[in-house]
């Protein structure tokens, strides 16, 4: 019942934004004009609260103009203020749900090299999490291929219990996202204005979306563009997107450092290069 009531409330707020009914505040940006509600936007974003309290045109005429920002990005921000989301929305599921879906993209019956260097026919992988290939009672490997990335050889010590394959985990998280690779730059642009408008909770959602998008689209040309935007529009003290960029490059170092655009990033932003060096050193350069 409570869940249904919350959905109805969210739908009511969304309809208020769409219809503009009972609006007492107009926000303009470029050619866009948004009929908004002070009770909603002022309680969710301090920028609008301060503007309304200022006592100028914003208070007398109920109009706030945003001439310096991208209308498309402002529209997404307003959608978030009213709905707690913006497109492309995150799927309403958990990592574990996404992990089970990852089973569909894992291929089985491949020949892989075991620890002794010989090609062996492996069983059809099972991508259930956490991975376990040995039998706790008898210490034998009943499932020698727990996923497409792992082959359990004779030297595993029957110790492949309850572990999470890094590759599977990344694939599972990457599945839990919709939309195209262009969203990387959208997230970075929206993140750029979060401090200016001080929208409650938006930074956390942006970081999660950007992280998942990087996991899915790290090999797309727009990744370097979004990474450049993230580093060029945020202060050194704000590591929200910067750490995600560094972690993404670290996870795919072999492929990404060969790209001229990524090499240019490392040359232009010393903080990125240093952060990447620290990250790889702490991980033992694996």
Automatic annotation (TrEMBL):
Domain of life of the organism encoding this protein: Eukaryota
Coiled-coil parts of chain: none
Alphabetized InterPro entries for the sequence: BTB/POZ_dom, SKP1/BTB/POZ_sf
Gene3D superfamilies per UniProt: Potassium Channel Kv1.1, Chain A
Name of the protein in question: BTB domain-containing protein
Keyword NAD found: no
BTB domain mapped to chain residues: 23-90
A matching Pfam family: BTB
Keywords recorded for this protein, A-Z: Signal
CDD domains in UniProt: BTB_POZ_ZBTB_KLHL-like
Signal peptide: 1-23
């Amino acid at each position: 019942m409570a869940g249904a009531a919350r959905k109805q409330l969210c739908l009511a707020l969304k309809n208020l934004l769409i219809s503009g009914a009972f609006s007492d505040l107009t926000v303009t940006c470029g050619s866009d004009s948004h009929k908004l509600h002070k009770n909603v936007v002022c309680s969710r974003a301090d920028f609008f609260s301060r503007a309304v309290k200022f006592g100028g045109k914003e208070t007398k005429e109920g109009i706030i103009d945003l001439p310096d920002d991208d209308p498309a990005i402002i529209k997404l921000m307003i959608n978030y203020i009213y709905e707690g989301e913006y497109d492309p929305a995150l799927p309403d599921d958990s990592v574990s749900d996404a992990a089970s879906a990852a089973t569909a993209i894992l291929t089985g019956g491949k020949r892989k090299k075991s620890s002794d260097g010989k090609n062996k026919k492996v069983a059809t992988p099972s991508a259930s999490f956490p991975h376990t290939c040995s039998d706790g009672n008898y210490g034998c490997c009943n499932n020698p291929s727990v996923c497409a990335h792992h082959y359990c050889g004779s030297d595993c010590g029957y110790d492949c219990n309850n572990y999470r394959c890094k590759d599977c985990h990344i694939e599972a998280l990457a599945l839990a996202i919709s939309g195209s690779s262009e969203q990387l730059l959208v997230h970075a642009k929206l993140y750029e204005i979060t401090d200016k408008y001080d929208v409650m909770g938006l930074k956390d959602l942006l970081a999660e979306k950007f992280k998942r998008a990087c996991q899915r689209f790290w090999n797309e040309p727009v990744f370097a563009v979004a990474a450049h935007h993230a580093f060029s529009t945020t202060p050194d003290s704000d590591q929200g997107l910067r750490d995600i960029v560094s972690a993404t490059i670290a996870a795919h170092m072999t492929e990404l450092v060969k790209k001229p655009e990524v090499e240019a990033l490392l040359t232009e932003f010393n903080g990125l290069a240093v952060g990447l060096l620290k990250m790889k050193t702490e991980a033992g350069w694996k």
